Amino acid sequence: MPVHTQGSLLAGRYRVLTRLGSGGMASVLLCHDERLDRRVAVKRLHADSPGEVEQRFVREAKLGASFNHPNLVSVYDTALEDEGLLIVMEYVRGESLAHALPRGPLEPERLASLAIDLGEALDYVHAEGVVHRDVKPANVLLRDDGVAKLVDLGIAMSVDQTRMTRSGTVLGSAAYMAPEQLGGGEVGPAADVYAFATVCFEALAGRRAPPGRTPMEIAHRIATAEPPDVRDHAPELPAAVAHALARGMARDPADRQASAGDLAAELADGLERQERPEPATPPTLQTAVTAPVPAA
């Protein structure tokens, strides 16, 4: 029976309910854990995936299982089936940011909450000595109660590990990759700060930060152009928000915020000012000037 067939049983305990999505590397299934009576998301590696992809898949499982943070999707289990390797994860009821954005930009209050959640998740990952390297809207899950969670550690690396695959391919999604990552150089937490800033820019502006029709065109703009101003697309946003995003997308990693949490705090503060306008300045008392009264 095919692994994705509704009603089939995986690893002797995970009953397939429906397919949640599918990508080039894996499919994600909604399943019922019959042993613990709960819903889980099961990520299945495609059987014909090359060995290098399988190694990244195993890395994702190990990293996910070792982390414990409310804004990271938890990994519960792994299993090997004839149809492929399985990762059993927390099921997040909601949608990805990538699915939400086509309906329009996020409200400032919603973006501020999302930024705080993701900033805390990234700071936790970085404190563990790991760089995510693939922060993008598709890897941000928005739970129905408003909590944001970061997912997919498939290409994450320890900061002292190689930044490229053996074949020399740079991993990540071009529109959200920092210049140093695109160039195949050393990638540290600052690269995640850059990607985080581009995701927040897109969520507020309703369009990607680096325009371009092809990955090569996007990469060229990232490497050569100055960071865009979000107010070109959302003029109502405060200057503080535009400055925070531009700083997060600086070409030089040293010019970016020191941490994802710092970027999140700057954004939240700037957006709060927009939600709560400054009180009007009271009128200045001036000496009244009266016109001369004509003589009788």
Please outline the helices and strands.
Elements: E1 9-10, E2 14-22, E3 26-33, E4 38-45, H1 51-66, E5 75-81, E6 84-90, E7 94-96, H2 97-100, H3 108-127, E8 130-131, E9 140-143, E10 148-150, E11 157-158, H4 179-182, H5 189-205, H6 215-224, H7 239-248, H8 260-275
Antiparallel strand pairs: 1-2, 2-3, 3-4, 4-6, 5-6, 7-9, 8-11, 9-10
Helix pairs in contact: 3-5, 3-8, 5-7, 7-8
Instruction: Work out the number of β strands.
Output: 11
- What is the topology, as strand order, of the major beta sheet? 1-2-3-4-6-5
The chain-level mean pLDDT equals 84
The helix fraction, in percent, is 25-40%
What's the CATH topology name of the largest domain? Transferase(Phosphotransferase), domain 1
Report the C-alpha radius of gyration, rounded. 24 Å
